Amino acid sequence: xxxxxxxxxxxxxxxxxxxxxxxxxxxxxxxxxxxxxxxxxxxxxxxxxxxxxxxxxxxxxxxxxxxxxxxxxxxxxxxxxxxxxxxxxxxxxxxxxxxxxxxxxxxxxxxxxxxxxxxxxxxxxxxxxxxxxxxxxxxxxxxxxxxxxxxxxxxxxxxxxxxxxxxxxxxxxxxxxxxxxxxxxxxxxxxxxxxxxxxxxxxxxxxxxxxxxxxxxxxxxxxxxxxxxxxxxxxxxxxxxxxxxxxxxxxxxxxxxxxxxxxxxxxxxxxxxxxxxxxxx
Length: 281
Prior knowledge:
Blueprint: H1 2-5, E1 10-11, H2 21-33, E2 41-42, H3 56-66, E3 71-76, E4 79-84, H4 91-94, H5 104-112, E5 117-122, H6 124-129, H7 131-139, E6 144-149, H8 153-158, H9 167-183, E7 187-190, H10 199-206, E8 211-214, H11 215-229, E9 244-246, H12 250-261, E10 269-271, H13 274-278
Helix pairs in contact: 2-3, 5-7, 5-11, 9-10
């Protein structure tokens, strides 16, 4: 309600919306839409209440009544923006009673596995949440899921320690992946957007017969599918153009972004003042 009063067009949910379980989230939505106050659109493109969970129906009814959607089209200055509301993959572990599920990467792993043994790599919080495991088993309870928390992968990726010949990331990967290799997984979910920078090292250790599932790539594919359904895919041919907007520390952003993108971003980066977005509110 406060965001609506401030004039915001859209928002998404985070872990604190589930501090009082899924039922508390449903009650919060109900209080908001029955208040009569102006409300922002609530976008939740990658959230679904756990099937069969005690709060599932309450959450579904409240989301429907509020009008929760995956996306929003917003026109500003002659430009139409497609906005997706995405919850971070660690949100569930920070509010473990939320009963949330993450779909694209888990579904891709279920389709890819041949042996029925799927590995999941993630940060410690993601692995504690069991979000990927629960989604996979909801699709096929006969599958075996082996998980490994890999907290050191994030600083290795951010600091550029990703060369397949470097013994430090290779030894780190071997330490984390040994139980998954021993279990014979044939499909491996990279459950953090940092981890694809280590793909060569992970593939070298696990072997070429193990399929790596990039959770970020699967999420992007799902976004493309949703845009196609809404007939919003660009008809333009060829490569698109990127623009990046930051409010602080552009040099730090450039350093990390160029590692992830594998190219220079140059004049595609622009620093903006928050007041220019909020009109000084």
